[in-house]
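Request: When convenient, would you put together a sequence paired with its structure tokens?
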Amino acid sequence: MEPKVNIALEAARAGCKELLSYAYRLDQLEIKEKGPSNFVTQLDRKVESIIIDSLKSIYPKHTYVSEEVGRIEGSGKDVESMWVIDPLDGTKEFLKFDGIGSFTVNIALIRENEPLIGIVYAPAIKRLFYAGKTFGSFEENKDGIKKIRIRKSDKNKIVAVASSSHLDQKTKEWLIKNNIARTVSIGSSLKFCLVASGEADVYPRFGPTMEWDTAAGDAVLRYAGGRVEYLDGSKFTYGKKNFTNTPFIAKGDF
């Protein structure tokens, strides 16, 4: 593995440790007065700081982009190397007060408008995905570490993965148009990972997303043999103005 992946994995583990320290005692925290939204924003910033500080100590010249801090330019203005971070993806899952769920920490390194490496860590369900352009995609779980690949699709048994919180009318219409009757619902960037690991075939997304929502999962899928495309079939890219994505389809062999 590239050294950057090991360093990013350590940063992701540190961030997830902080998240879990709260996830298992959410019902004990005094968040009612300020509200869940305020609490999550504060926690986002705390985890975000842990991850960025960890990476910046090794890569001070790189650029950093994250939901709460926006864009932080590196000391060397190295625009070719941009870390994209989501410290808590899947807020609704996190706020279920049960200490489990599909919330994730996402870290990706973007170079030349595409993800070079990506890490998606879902600590509550003990699934860690990581990928790199030079070595492929892997999953680490309770059974160990294994390399993952997309599966061969059966056109009569296509499985789509959809957002558990954002299943909109356009997605429903797209599923009907493509004769897809079976869907699996899950939160956060794990939707990309289910396609990458051969548990689903396609993930359509018509609702709004930002680059920190997609970059890490995109890397896991790309280097497992899949792809992410805009609706016109062109390749998904990063470094867009305001970091706002347009609708896309994430595919395995579909």
Notes: The CA atoms of residues 15 and 47 lie 5 Å apart. The mean pLDDT is 88. DSSP finds six helices and 13 strands in the chain.
